[in-house]
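Justification of resources, computational component.

The compute hours requested in this renewal are based largely on the per-chain cost of generating structure records like the one below. Each record pairs the submitted sequence with a full structure-token output. That output is archived, and it is also reused by downstream analysis tasks.
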Amino acid sequence: MEQNQDLNTMLQFLSQPAFLVQKGLITQVNTAATACCLQQGMEFAPLLVTGLEEYKELTSGNLYVALNISGIVRDACITVMDETQLVTVEEGLTQEKLQILSLAATILREPMNGLMALADQFLPVAAGQDARMQQQAALMNRRLYQMLRTVGNMSDASTFGDAGTMETIEICGFFEEILERIVELGQHSGIRLSYQIPHEPIFTLANTAKLERAVLNQLSNAMKFSAPDTEVQFRLTKKGNRLYISVTNIAEQPLPSGGFHNRFLRTPGMESPKNGVGLGMLLMQNAAVIHGGAVLMEQTADRVRVTLSLPIKRAKSPCVRSPILMPDYAGELDHNLIELSDVLPADAYKLDKLI
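The structure output for this chain reads:
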């Protein structure tokens, strides 16, 4: 009883729409949720656009899903608190704000591309055979890759909610190629990655560009916040008609209590720069939604597991289509080096290793 009173009190202090769910029914709503036509006694499951299967099995942690509230699809976080679930609806991702981020990225991309081109010509000459200058060139390269990653994330903001081009892929081979490269990079950086992937081929429809970036961001976050001298574990499993992409790490510190949807709206200087802007996690959530899945974040003791779930989908038409060549956001640079630029050491960006 006392816990319910505490939850109800906390609920009223939240500015975004929020409500409590028990045994599948909404039991308490705050003022912002009432304004969205959410009421006590409503069934919660019919609101779920994605994550229904994951919600049925939810016992702990935070589940990030999409809800249909009064005809509008909105991101939400379900937090398990014993027999009660706290659901908070995110308000920060308006299309106008996303378009501003995309416009800023467009403006930044031209000077960024020019800077990358100048670096390609200048750094090899400046570094020469001098070991100290070669190290400085590697540091500069790493910073350029970090900037390119941020600009790419900002640019993708305008495509949130857009499934884009889906194609049938063999997902085990798709991930194995990515992970082999990360293991190779990790050997030179002190970052240990182990992975388990089914031996049998699994075919599914996917947007390969969005899925790749989502998983690389998933791995980057795990590596960034891992305790020293520990291992990050990647696991791809198939259960029924669903795929589960899990990344587990031993965290250096506990997870923040808040969600990651509105992180890019935070006040500058209020958090460690190590946290970044949060757009990478938004890309991950978006990838889950457009594929019809969800994101589950769990923490037990010092171990953190983030799971991206996806339904296995088949193409409706058996016809063969010619592949569509899409512009590469990385300008044909190594995607792994870009997306892991916050965790890989400068040595990974030495000029002789980038050739």
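The longest strand covers residues 72-81. The chain has a mean pLDDT of 84.
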